[in-house]
Amino acid sequence: MSFTTLTALAIDNGFRIVIYFAGIKNNLLEQTTKRLKKDLLTESDNSRFFKVYQSPSIKTNGHNDIKGALKLNRKPAILITVLKHTKHISELTEIFKTIEVREALGNNGVLIIDDEADQASLNTYARKNSKSEDWEDDEFSSTYSSILDLRASLPNHSYIQYTATPQAPLLINIMDLLSPKFHVVLTPGKAYTGGKTFFEDNTDLIKTIPDLEVYHHKHNPLSECPQSLIEALQLFLMGTAIVVNIQEKENFLSMMIHADREQDASKKFYNWISNIIDNWSNRLALPDNDPSKIELVTEFYNNYEDAIKRIDNPPTFEEVMSEVSQVLLDTNLELVIQGSREIDWSNATSHILVGAEMLNRGYTVEGLSVSYMPRYSISKSNADTIQQRCRFFGYKRNYLDSCRVYLPLDSILEYRDYVEHEEIMRKILKENTLETVEQLLILNGSMNPTRSNVLSTDVVSHKLNGWRQMNALQHIDENISFVSDFLSNQTFKEFKNYGTDDRNHRYVKLEIGKVIEFLKDFKIMNMPDALRKSSTIQYLRYLAEKKEIKEAYIFEMSYAYDISKSKGTSLIDSKGGLKLNNIFSGRSTSGKEVYPGDKGIRFEDSLCIQIHKIKVKHTSMQWDKKVLYTLGIYYPEDFAHSFVGVEK
Predict the structure, then answer these.
(1) Is the CA virtual torsion 257, 259, 262, 265 positive or negative?
(2) What is the C-alpha to C-alpha distance for residues 609 and 519, in angstroms, rounded to an integer?
């Protein structure tokens, strides 16, 4: 809907042509073309103002069609849908290279809309190219090259990327021609149900598939239909009977089964479901006193309470089962694999779709209420990949109470982590430019942000919990000036008197906004400390909103100590260059009080920042006895997080 609206706005503002990269599967291409015609042509009412062409080429006389449309006096908008594949994009490019189309187009604007922009468009040789010494030796993946060729053939165009998972576009090299220069965060309507709906607000809709029933084509190729799938199917049929036949809130509902990427797995699950539907339909037609029917009805009854638990004034079990037999007779079972037919959603009360890659990203399963997804990854998952499998997100508020999502436990935990990551990412993107986001994502360390081959640099990943020290070895004079001004403007409290100047510290409790400003103005240049600083700022913003943490602590360590008396903190050589050995003094039993060590100087209810004034000890005259400020940061376990970013 967003890019349909964008299309209309572009036409209003003088663009003549809109090109859509409509995914890598034919079903996505057909879906996009059909929706554009429905929304813009409105049953041919607007046919004078819009011309829609699917996958035009010179072979199909597409150049003459486009040239003719460009020359029409009423200047119709030309909408071109094309598969995101090098062959189809290259054929379109050849049209724009023809003299007649170039002359007819002139300098008129062209808008390219890249749907699912993180998939297929990006250069999969980026990682390999980063290791070459000469840019002239760089390689480009075929689809990426064809996109660049198309853009080069258009004298005046804009390129808009759409995706629900922007991790890859955000992290690719900023010099890449597909690296975004600005962004817009889309806000869904109130009826939308997404990650928060299922994994935070309505966790009872998520059901765990037992480990022994989790399908894997190598490690657990099931020989018979798992019981959890039978339960899911019964809940779906009862839910459809209630929502469609009894309440008449929807015209149909759907169930999706996504077991494994292998087609053989889809065929196996399809056969199981086909046999079950036939079996149940026949048994429910038997006399009420038939033992086989009684057994089946009892099975349904065992799931009845679950089916109605969220429904106000639910129908009786007898009413539901009367309609279940009708739903079974009006069920459309589809094996959705390459070459399968387009689904006629209006032609059945219930649809059951069994498939894998064809049901992956971008494809809308209309009326989806029950999802059964035993698919999982043995290796570390990519965050954008697992999110794109969530066909169960969408506008389902009207029948949410009958929705169920069956997943393995590991997948449930991954999705919970992903939802938190996505909420932080959306908030940060809403409030910042891409420049200030700094190619940085808050993400649980159990997942990779995206596939590594599209990233030209290493992904830095760190867990922020407990104590972390910064190594502020650049901009020393600026930091001294800044910290001195900051300290002089605060009213501190004594933490505790441990009897000696080097062990007595003071603190100030500041609102999160002030702490963020302090971190922003304190200069950290080395990697990965710069990423750690940026991620801390992002996370503080998230904590302030999400977990209502309003304040944090800043400590001035050893505030009365004469630094000239210090023996100094040594600099050591590390893989990333020089770094301070250890800024934290250890525990000590000498003196009138047992000193817990610098790491004991903290509060557990929020983030704590220690300001350390350090005298450096080193063999070189450049560094020996140099005085500087650096930071130690404590992340309480309740607020610990991970982040990923790319090397600058």
Answers:
(1) negative
(2) 9
Structure tokens at 70: 């460009």
Half-sphere exposure in the Cβ direction for 408 (13 Å, CA): 18
Structure tokens at 116: 């699912």
- Packing angle between helix 26-36 and helix 2-12, nearest 10 degrees? 50
- HSE-up of residue 433 (Cα within 13 Å, Cβ side): 4
Distance CA 241, CA 248 (A): 9
Encoded tokens for 338: 């390459």
Is the separation of the CB atoms in 253 and 369 below 8 Å? Answer: yes
| Among candidate residues 269, 261, 254, 243, the one with its CA nearest the CA of residue 365 | 254
216: DSSP letter: B
387, 422 contact by CB (below 8 A): yes
What is the rounded distance in angstroms from the CA atom of residue 379 to the CA atom of residue 384?
15
DSSP state of 462: E
Closest by CA position to 614, among listed 625, 601, 622: 625
Question: d(Cα 629, Cα 615) in Å, to the nearest integer?
Answer: 9
The predicted-structure confidence for 272-306, as pLDDT tens digits, reads as follows 999 999 999 999 999 999 999 999 999 999 999 99
* Residue closest to 544 by CA, chosen among 523, 517, 526, 579: 517
pLDDT tens digits, one per residue of 571-617: 887 766 788 999 999 999 887 789 999 999 999 988 999 999 999 99
Which among 401, 267, 405, 254 is positioned nearest to 331, based on CA atoms?
254
Helix %, strand %, coil % for the chain, to 5?
Answer: 40, 20, 35
What DSSP state is assigned to residue 385?
H
Pick the closest to residue 442 from 383, 393, 386, 515 (CA basis): 383
Please enumerate in sequence order all residues whose Cβ is within 8 A of that of 300, keeping only pairs 6 or more positions apart, or say none.
Answer: 234, 238, 317, 321, 324
Please report, as a single letter, which amino acid is at residue 310: R
Q: For residues 235 and 405, what is the distance between their CA atoms, to the nearest angstrom?
A: 11
- 500: which residues sit within 8 A by CB, 6+ positions away? 591
What value does the CA radius of gyration of the chain take, rounded to a whole number of Å? 30
How many angstroms separate the CA atoms of 172 and 179, rounded? 6
**Cβ(7)–Cβ(111) below 8 Å:** yes
- Assess contact for 593 and 599: CB atoms under 8 A: no
| pLDDT above 60: residue 455 | no
Structure tokens at 44: 């041919």
- The whole-angstrom separation of Cα 417 and Cα 401 is 24
- Joined together, the tokens standing for residue 139 give 């390689």
